[in-house]
Design goal:
Two copies of one chain form a homodimer. In chain A, 44% of the residues lie in helices and 12% in strands. Chain A has 15 helices and eleven strands. Chain A has helices at residues 4-10, 13-33, 45-53, 63-76, 96-108, 119-135, 150-165, 169-172, 192-199, 220-232, 255-265, 322-327, 359-394, 419-429, 457-484, and strands at residues 143-147, 181-186, 207-210, 236-243, 268-272, 297-301, 313-317, 397-399, 407-412, 435-438, 444-449. In chain A, the strands form two sheets. The first copy, chain A, has a seven-stranded mixed beta sheet, sandwiched between helices. In chain A, strands 8-9-11-10 form a four-stranded antiparallel beta sheet, covered by helices on one side. In chain A, β10 (435-438) and β11 form a beta hairpin. In chain A, α2 packs parallel to α4 and α14 (419-429) crosses α15 (457-484). The mean pLDDT of chain A is 95.
């Protein structure tokens, strides 16, 4: 009997051959032309919706047409994170081997819930966790899990901290504790901590946001004050988050001092190194992470500075067994692994259940380049960051942050120019993408981060030109506005 | 100046061309040979670890060798979920267009945090959410989000319920409520509810596990009793989960009755249709889901019955705005979308922050096949399930569950045969994969589920043969054991 499901879902052999060829052609065409595309364009949602609703979904449009539709949509109707002049959030150009890995994973479709289903994927991920843990100097054996992204990794850390600090948390929840738990992050920390605290039933108010000093690093004095006040008020401090590479300005908290504070108060010390932990791969930068070895857990996103496609978060922890205590459950229907303590069923060690094999893209990229290659690639981006900083200073922008990482916060010298408006002008040019943020005391800043390994010096020069044009236009409109003002 | 990062991460043009060719060759070779591989083999972890630690990670091994290593590992050292005789957990053979989509997403690397970054991906996902919501009969506009999997979708539902039911939950957490919240699931529900309840700070004990009737459906009488007792004890019931397609036996709770109970008590009604909601795509099966339109939220995993690669969970909700209330945060560094209320920044509507474009694999598979094609493909698998059931009965196995979905629970007639031992024998044969579970009253059962669209009738016959051999061997060993027993 003929199996129609197989033809429909696998496609006939010739059709599949055509689709693979078209796929590779499309990817190659994108890779060779992305530098010339506008980084971002204004997209009219109604146009996209119309295109979608015009498809004949009842009968389907076939593989070639569907592929073509997706390629056109991805190319014409979105911002291009791989673009060399995307100086944006921490979204990289993908490594080719990361793309290869995601395709392999999709085709083999391993299920990372039960060890007995996915021994090779399990070992690959265990290997990566161990290797990256060692690079950070975490005491061996390092445990950990791959995550959908940094938000899940930070969320996982919060749950680890709750579960290890409060034995009744697992069965009884937050109401079984003797008081309200509190956690500590800096003003420059990523807001995924707030989402995680809310999701863990602590509430947004449990996140104590500590001011930073002039270098955008958490103020140790303010932290101690806050801790003392909270303890006096009967709160239960249980987690201190150090940021290693803040989203706005790449700032790195004083990790050794934070480790000491956490240890003195008996609280869990988590380092959010989603972007910045990559400094551990470059010998001359690893000093930036001094103290990270003392963390109870670390967030490290390979889909940021390591240029692996999204999402490849890692949560590393030096507490063997903690993940199992936090996430373990028993079921009748899941296969049971053997008794070897080095084998774990991933679903008992993570927020997820059946999980995509995330680690392969990290492994394949690392195995291809080696640590030496990775260090060289990161060095290039760091060098571009340094150059950008120098060029901005030469073009008379005020640089507002100080870091060896390739992220520059800056503003026009003088008064009256709307920083968000400047960022908008750059974005609207289509020639580059930067954003606006706020630093210490709410000071508005432009933010340019070298995230694409494609970025070269010519791209920096083009950004400077675009910025100068935007600044000149903005100054003109400031003058016009002032001239229109009635005299007093 | 030469950019070494580009060569290292993108690879040189010729090297990349070779890698693409090797990738497609490897996938095609796997697709054409997987039917002949052992479904599962005993894997010695130390062998895998040795292979990994023998790699020269300092200098890297280059793209071709790395790819070959991964392909060998994925092929030789794991269970094959795409295998036609993988009668296993809900892990499918991947649709080819799903593989294509995952490769596109990896190469373009859209970032689904900010709308302004990913308009096309955002609209594609919004479109899919709307279309699948309509198939389930949820009132429009349907809101929702793609998730890493069903565990995240169920977790999201739990947070929606908490956030909508308890206004102080967001800022004050669980301790700010007037009592301990409680949720209700059946014995046959997926245990991700327990993980989610724990992760939300409710504690495992907040999950009230309600017994099932002889058809493995939640007992309405027991549910009412439990609710009344909890209310009397001052607990705060807030969430009722109906299962549509239980993991063990495919059971579907009486959804209309559950909707009525939930409505009467003013609690959120979530349906976990991770696998079973796919019945909505087959007109003659959609009656199984009667009542699902009344759900406040639904979990529907496209990486289960819809044969999309992992992970493609969907959380659908008829409460417009609820996701934004549950997950919204404000930051200085994220770009702001416009004021159009149909545009959302995905990071404010999901547990995740920067997210992979999950929806493309669902969209591309659906657009290629159409709803008609999907119905036909699902019908085939349902037909194989029916055939398997008939063949098992003919071969004198006792079938223990009753469902139109392709999942059969069964046991050998007569006493004394260890069911887990039988499953192990089948797995060890390498010729098929089934598992053991426990049904009503803890009765052990064998479980075979048609999850691969490759499964044909010959595969069913082979499974029956393997089962008969395993049963005969098991009977022999029962007899041997009994002969060895001393007479009383």
């Amino acid at each position: 009997v003929h199996n129609p499901a197989r033809d429909l879902l696998l496609l006939a052999d010739e059709e599949r051959a055509e689709v693979w060829a078209a796929l590779i052609r499309s990817i190659e065409s994108y890779l060779s032309s992305v530098d010339d595309l506008p980084v971002a364009t204004a997209v009219e949602p109604l146009l996209v919706r119309e295109a979608l609703s015009n498809l004949d979904l009842s009968r389907g449009i076939g593989a070639s047409e569907a592929l073509e539709f997706a390629v056109r949509g991805l190319t014409d109707w979105q911002l291009h994170t791989p673009h060399p002049r995307y100086f944006g959030l921490f979204n990289p150009a993908s490594s080719t081997m990361g793309v290869v890995a995601d395709a392999l994973v999709a085709a083999w479709n391993p299920q990372l819930a039960a060890w007995s289903h996915s021994q090779f994927p399990y070992e690959v991920e265990r290997f990566c966790i161990g290797e990256f843990g060692a690079k950070l100097g975490l005491p061996q054996p390092v445990d950990g899990t791959f995550c959908s992204g940094g938000a899940e990794a930070n969320h996982t850390a919060l749950l680890l901290a709750l579960s290890e600090r409060f034995p009744s948390f697992r069965a009884g929840g937050i109401r079984s504790l003797e008081g309200q738990p509190a956690l500590y992050v800096s003003e420059q920390a990523h807001h995924s901590s707030i989402k995680a605290a809310r999701a863990c039933g602590l509430g947004d108010d449990a996140v104590r946001i500590v001011p930073v000093d002039d270098d955008l690093r958490i103020s140790l004095g303010a932290l101690e004050e806050r801790l003392e006040a909270d303890l006096a008020a009967g709160l239960l401090p249980f987690l201190l988050v150090g940021t290693a590479g803040g989203t706005s300005a790449g700032s790195i908290d004083p990790l050794p001092e934070l480790a000491e504070v956490a240890s003195r108060h008996g609280i869990w010390f988590h380092v959010d190194g989603a972007w910045g932990a990559a400094a551990a791969l470059v010998p001359e930068l690893s000093h930036l992470l001094k103290g990270i070895h003392a963390a109870d857990s670390v967030t490290f996103d390979a889909h940021k500075f390591l240029s692996v496609p999204m999402g490849a978060g890692m949560l590393l922890t030096s507490h063997d067994g903690a993940l199992g205590r936090a996430f373990g459950v028993d079921t009748a229907y899941m296969p049971h692994r053997g008794d070897d303590p080095s084998l774990r069923d991933p679903y008992t060690h993570s927020l997820q259940w059946s999980r995509r094999h995330i680690g392969l893209k990290v492994f394949l990229t690392l195995a291809t380049l080696g640590w030496d290659g990775y260090a060289e690639a990161l060095r290039w981006q760091v060098r571009m960051g340094r150059l950008l900083r120098a060029k901005l200073l030469r073009a008379e922008w005020e640089v507002m942050n100080s870091t060896e990482l390739p992220i520059v916060c800056f503003r026009p010298e003088g008064e009256g120019i709307d920083v968000q408006g400047l960022a908008d002008r750059v974005v609207q040019s289509g020639q580059a993408w930067i954003s606006a943020t706020r630093l210490h005391g709410g000071a508005p800043a432009l933010r340019a981060c070298v995230t694409s390994y494609r970025t070269g010096e010519a791209d920096l020069d083009e950004l400077i030109l675009i910025l100068e044009t935007a600044r000149a236009e903005a100054r003109k409109s400031v003058v016009r506005t002032e001239m229109r003002r009635p005299h007093p």
